[in-house]
Write a structure and sequence with these properties.
The structure is a homodimer. By secondary structure, chain A is mainly α. Chain A folds into 2 domains: 49 residues, Arc Repressor Mutant, subunit A; 135 residues. Chain A has 11 helices and no strands. Chain A binds a DNA duplex through helix 1, helix 2 and helix 3. Chains A, B: InterPro entries: Homeodomain-like_sf, HTH-type_TetR-like_transc_reg, HTH_TetR, Tet_transcr_reg_TetR-rel_C_sf.
DNA sequence: TGCAAAGCGGACCCATGGTCCGTATTCTTG
DNA sequence: CAAGAATACGGACCATGGGTCCGCTTTGCA
């Protein structure tokens, strides 16, 4: 690549920060009580370094997110798993939502930090856009389903980080139960009523 | 009466603050750029007064909310409208969700401020608890519907303030269209499949 | 080895929620 | 109506946290 690679101290520090942040967010109840200064300190780095590497808090969160999300994204794009494009829509939709839920269960704090993240709503983020677009397109292929756009929003809303945190964290709902509930719910949305489902085409 | 009423200057100031806050939140794009100092200034009052009257930012928001929400709450509790307890569950659920949606459409900024409101997730607020509890109970009465608790959460999630704001505000989805989409969605969730409930699982 | 360029880091800035306390207003009681 | 107690007022003040600045250090190319 033409563009210079970053200096090795920069690269090292970047990694250190990512690791420290990851640990800190995982350790603390609420993302709010992990400050940028904390992250810098834990990484053994100055605040200036931190901000130069990631721009701002959102940038740091985004970087963490991308790292964690890579595998899933790959599975969705090209994989042969139920997430991949080869899966028929009515099976792929639940699989996608289950994947989102699992991701948020596995990365509760991070997802929370990213999603509520203060200033802007999650709906501005481009990763949301991507998921919504994908889901919308898949829904579109299910015959008889109207309002794919809104439906995609509504389904994704059922997996919002703070809801997941509330249920899994405070209400102590076990992982598998949540997955089952979401699956049932999604199935219900996709399985439109008996009488009028026949004539659809 | 045992407990003294508040002094009249206090009462007057309280009103002034509520009014000023209402106006300010309505005028600004994001709740974030209405500061407590702004509110105090607009009300012609000192910050001390503001904080004494409402405790903190959340308290002010809550007070505003309660005022706005009163009518709906009454309709739900005792009214004869479709919101009231007399309505059969399968009709009441859509009515309730439509009411929530309309409220958030009519009070976009306020709802946004209240819901994302920074520190704590909406799921901690007791007004959410109330709505969720009510919806859960009504859902419970619909035969064949399982997981009422989760379903209530998921349905309410479809009316979250930031989603409403995103759709109505940025995406310019007209009010009636949103209501229709939500209604369709809710109907789909409530209209579960035939006896054998599909082979899915 | 020399010397830009890139990077470092922590002192510093500033906005904002929230507190404090001396002063002003209101209520009560005689 | 007087006067003291109780309550409220308000803006200076504080703490916190994101983000910036800039003199010094490290890196890496020649």
């Amino acid at each position: 690549m033409p563009e210079h690679r970053s200096r090795k101290d920069a690269a090292r520090n970047r990694e250190a920060v990512l690791e420290a942040a990851d640990t800190l967010f995982a350790r603390h109840e609420s993302p709010e009580d992990v400050t940028m200064a904390d992250v810098a300190a834990a990484a053994g780095v100055g605040k200036g370094t931190l901000f130069r590497a990631f721009g701002d808090r959102a940038g740091l969160l985004r970087a963490l997110y991308e790292g964690r999300f890579e595998p899933i994204r790959e599975a969705v794009e090209a994989g042969t798993s139920p997430l991949g494009p080869a899966t028929p829509p009515q099976d792929r939709v639940p699989a996608l939502l289950d994947a989102v839920l699992c991701f948020k269960l596995d990365n509760r704090r991070l997802a929370l930090a990213l999603e509520e993240g203060g200033s802007s709503s999650p709906y501005g983020a481009e990763h949301y856009e991507r998921w919504h677009g994908l889901l919308r397109d898949v829904l579109e292929q299910i015959p008889g389903l109207t309002d794919s756009d809104f439906t995609a929003h509504a389904l994704l809303a059922a997996t919002r980080a703070d809801l997941v945190e509330h249920l899994a964290g405070e209400k102590r709902v076990p992982r598998e139960r949540m997955r089952a509930q979401l699956a049932t719910y999604v199935a219900r949305v996709l399985a439109f009523g008996p009488p009028q489902s026949i004539d659809r085409r």
